[in-house]
Amino acid sequence: MKYRSTIAVILAASAAYAEGLARVPAGTEPPPQLKDVGVDQKLNAQLPLEAEFLDEEGKSIRLGQLFGRRPVVLALVYYECPMLCTMVLNGTLRAARALQLNAGTDYDVVAISFDAEETPALALRKKEEYIERYNRPGAERGWHFLTGSPASIKAVTEAAGYRFSRDPSNGQWAHASAIMVATPEGRLARYFYGVEYSARDLRFSLVEASQGKIGTPVDQVLLYCFHYDPATGKYSLVIMNILRAAGALTVAALLLFWFVQSRRGRSKQNHVELPIIS
Hints:
Blueprint: E1 6-13, H1 15-22, E2 38-39, E3 52-54, E4 60-62, E5 72-77, H2 84-98, E6 108-113, H3 120-134, H4 139-142, E7 143-148, H5 150-160, E8 162-163, E9 165-166, E10 173-176, E11 178-182, E12 188-193, H6 199-210, E13 220-227, H7 237-270
Parallel strand pairs: 5-6, 6-7
Antiparallel strand pairs: 1-13, 2-8, 3-4, 3-7, 5-11, 9-10, 10-13, 11-12
């Protein structure tokens, strides 16, 4: 198997999280592989429309050929990702299916693999899967899956502020999750983080982008795709801290539910029906 086990780690990129991380004991900081991984918001930055890629049929295409007519939802992924990239594409699909706007007539979805070793054959399989699941007329005109050279990939990812790295020890990619909305002219108008995207917000962003309007920065909650070593069966300490925190929140939620239900039960027991005096 090319891939080891993978975990999607939720890290809140906020001031509160930064303060909390600063108090984390020595040795529990994020792994070195995540040091240069993230998504920076470069609103109004111009995507390199002259960059050359291959489409799903293996034909050379300039990125600009997918722009100029309507806004674009841009997803930077890799097609053999065992977890997070599929979640990004699935989240995009769910939001797209909830829209009255149609991919191919009102906007386009462009997925670009940041793994230069991936092939048009992989891209074609992804396209066939997602246009079948999207299940709307003309879907093949609105969903595009590209592969390209390291130079073309670098030009797009740097313009979009998408930072990722490869672990030389196992060949895995460490990366974050987000999609972007770009204007028909190829300027970045809005970022959506995570793997679930509000259809209402996406629609609003597409309408604004179609008019050339640029949105405002949004709060970042990043999901990082990162592995653990099955030889030890352990995650890094920072991941374990996050997992423990998630477990504590689950327990707290269950206790709160029990407390509310208990109070409701007591309230019913203490309620006394007063006789009606006529």
